[in-house]
Design a protein that fits this description.
Number of strands: 34
Structural class: mainly beta
Largest sheet: 5 strands, antiparallel
Radius of gyration: 24 Å
Strand content: 35-45%
Number of helices: 6
Mean pLDDT: 89
Shape: globular
Helix content: 10-25%
Strand order of the largest sheet: 1-27-26-2-3
């Protein structure tokens, strides 16, 4: 799940006009990293790195200069500025998480998704929430015709209004698929919306009036398909849909011009080939289009309006070569009973690299993960490495049945259903790797399979060898 991918950066510039040469770019502002919108705040470009559960800050040369991790940032998918120092982060599961970028990047508040999963954009002191294009259930309970397309929230995540109404699909139960979409909010409060599976981009005034609708011309007039079910293959539900829009971002105005709206979309129905369309926010006119290559997965713009595309994996990999940030102490202090009822304090493991793993008997990925952890535990000497498996079961019966089945060789501690409240993780399994001084090396969200454990094994080996 957390892979550090290498590769050489690819840079291609596209000019808006027919200027013979481009002036010095004077630094870049990141618009999209992979398939997520970035945000400009405090002179830096901030972007989510969902594979590593963190936020990255890039300077004008697109060098990583800051990282923010937090248990509440499990799989961040989008960021948007919220005030002078705060970022509103969209989690994969739709929670809104507000992070203060000053200091250590503490989480100042969060809220639950108003939909199955929501995507957030902020501007003019309010937040727009759409059905997330990053987590789209194939089936959903039909919504009433009057259901809002876009929910408006205040900066505390409380509902304050609604814009437009949903589009009813031709096939029942596909309401969520049809109405999921990207969103951006301008400094004047205008809302830009781009449905995931339809060739259109819309602009709404703050009061909700439709200002314009732009189309790329991907389908001949009257032939744009609606999602529909395909014949099932076994137990697998199959859906035919054309993925069109992926993300929206409002960019800085080029010198002497107004701002621009950037739409990251698809050139093919499966969104394997991407494109960026540059729109005039005032009229919806498409000013330029850039078709991206396979490795061109990060998009930036300079002060003169020149687009540049990069290999996103290379940009992210630089984060691990950047100057390391000070490791934070793990907390709150852990002191829990083991299966025999004796209190075990995490401080007792000080001097050893330690993996603290939170799990529960009802967690399917935890069942898959336990054999890998047992194998990992046996590969290192106890003077160098330890695992503390912390059950978050409320009922001891299923927990003990789980332990009897998997027979973990490492200590099991009883959390009694209170761990999520204490450690604020998003879901299970959740692990924290600690160095010999009890400081956080990395956080691991979910179960990433054998490849994740190969990488984790190397990280532990390197840490064990460290002086």
């Amino acid at each position: 799940m957390r892979l550090v991918l290498g590769g050489c950066a690819v840079l291609v510039a596209v000019l808006y006009g027919c200027r013979p040469t481009a002036p010095p770019h004077s630094g870049f502002t990141l618009l999209f990293l992979d398939r997520s919108p970035a945000a400009s705040l405090g002179g830096l470009s901030w972007a989510p790195d969902p594979e590593h559960g963190r936020l990255l800050a890039f300077d004008r040369e697109l060098r990583v200069v800051r990282q923010i991790t937090n248990p509440r940032l499990a799989t961040p998918m989008a960021v948007t500025p919220l005030g002078g120092t705060e970022l509103l982060v969209t989690e994969h599961t739709g929670e809104g998480v507000v992070v203060d970028t000053i200091g250590d990047g503490r989480v100042v508040r969060e809220w639950e998704s108003p939909d199955v999963a929501s995507l957030y954009a902020a501007g003019a002191g309010r937040v727009a929430a759409t059905r997330s294009p990053y987590y789209v259930p194939q089936l959903s309970t039909p919504e009433p015709d009057s259901a809002p397309l876009i929910r408006m929230l205040d900066t505390l995540g409380r509902p304050i209004g609604r814009l437009a109404t949903i589009r009813r699909p031709a096939t029942p139960l596909l309401d969520y698929v049809v109405n999921a979409g990207a969103v951006a909010v301008g400094p004047d409060g205008a809302v830009y919306y781009a449905p995931l599976v339809r060739d259109e981009i819309r602009k709404y005034t703050p009061a909700g009036q439709l200002t314009w609708t732009a189309k790329r011309g991907l389908f001949p007039a009257g032939s744009e398909p609606d999602p529909e079910f395909l014949p099932a293959k076994g137990a697998d539900l199959r859906l035919k849909k054309a993925l069109v829009n992926v993300a929206l971002a409002l960019g800085p105005p080029p010198e002497g011009r107004g701002g621009r709206l950037y739409a990251l979309g698809s050139d093919d129905s499966a969104a394997t080939r991407l494109r960026v369309d540059v729109l005039d926010p005032a009229t919806g006119a498409i000013l330029a289009t850039r078709h991206l290559g396979a490795r061109e997965t990060a998009v930036a713009v300079d002060a003169s309006g020149v687009l540049a595309v990069f290999d996103a994996d290379s940009l992210v990999a630089r984060a691990d070569g950047a100057a390391p940030s000070t490791r934070e102490a793990f907390g709150p202090a852990l002191a829990l009973p083991d299966l025999a009822g004796d209190t075990v304090r995490l401080a007792a493991f000080r001097g050893r690299v330690t993996l603290v793993n939170f799990w529960a008997s009802w967690c399917d990925p935890c069942r898959e993960e336990f054999p890998h952890m047992a194998e990992l535990y046996r590969e290192f000497d106890r003077k160098d490495f330890e695992i503390a498996g912390v059950s978050d079961d409320l009922d001891s019966g299923p927990m003990l049945a789980f332990v009897r089945k998997y027979r973990p060789p490492f200590p099991i501690l009883v959390g009694g259903g209170r761990m999520k409240q204490l450690y604020h993780y998003r879901g299970l399994p959740y692990s924290v790797l600690l160095d010999r001084q009890g400081r956080v090396i990395e956080r691991i969200f979910g179960f990433g399979g054998a490849e994740e454990f190969r990488r984790l094994r190397q990280t532990i080996a390197n840490e064990v060898r460290a002086p």
